[in-house]
Amino acid sequence: MEYKLFKLFNQIKHYEWGAMDLIPKFTGIENMGMRPCAEMWMGTHLSPSQVQSDGKMISLTQVAGGELPFLFKLLAVEKPLSIQAHPNKEQAREGFEREDKAGIPIDAQERNYKDKNHKPEIICALSPFTLMTGFRDAGNIYLSLKSFISDAPQLKEVITPLMRALESDSLAIFFNVLFHISKSEREYLAAFIMEDRIRETETISPEQISLMKNFAAEYPADAAILAPLYLNVITLQKGQAVNIPDGVLHSYVHGFGIELMSNSDNVLRGGLTPKHIDIVELMKILKFSTYIPKVLSGDSVFFCYPSVCGEFSLSFMSDDGGGKNTIPKNSSLICLVTEGELKAGNETFKKGESFFVSSGGEDIVLNGNYAVFAAAGKA
Averaged over 99-125, what is the pLDDT? Predict the structure, then answer.
């Protein structure tokens, strides 16, 4: 049986945190509406990619024979995404059924669980990409807050309860106290940060200070403006990636990259957003333990990024025209060309174009001068 290969026509999502030109320039598609282009979805989830078959456009779902177990995205982050985390499978199933029983419409703003699936993710940079992810060690957070109030003794009453929680080595208590700071105290905190009076110390970097100022300017009544002090701040370089498992608090801050995740839309938000925030529900699904993500650095020719999820895998391949890469065909693939021009079978794909390859059949031989990322489902 021969494999079948289809060029994808994908939906672009226009969220307010997106960039005007990164995705249009990358894909060669003009931004006719001059709206922020935040994500390009490749897959079968909610807004399925389209393919051309027998002279007409049809859904990728039809070609793939149903839903793919993953969703592949191109991301252009101009402004920070919300502080968020995703449930595991058991939490997602229980939450979905509970909200269904309560009669909350699936498209309601206050709906937390849109499906019964978990949503582990891997994010890989196409250019420098800054994110915050995973709780720092409680002791390190304590030292950062101690440095903070040394410059802001007038904020001692706001910050001291957080430090007491950390003295007990409880990130859960710390997080609960943080989000019970009053609105007036949050605004006072934001105003102080905006006054540019926080000094760089051994425990507070210029990058953390800059991020807090940006957050305070955008969300002056949000407790999450302190997130750079309690989450790991990481800037990935081109080709580097990190896994974000279920239950890990995170936020993408700025950059251009690709994201691969399980086929889900379950998001619990905890700040830096005008969207629905449910701290009580978020705390039910969070892992209150230190998580320092391992930065994965891909090889320049071929690399398969280790994944925390058995439902998908992400691989990178490149060629300067002097050889051939072969992809074993044991599962369905979505491939995104990120540089140059790639030949697969009788088809040619340029930078910014993507294609789907059905499972089964002979191996796929790739030729040309290119770089390509391949998202695969579980065999």
Answer: 94
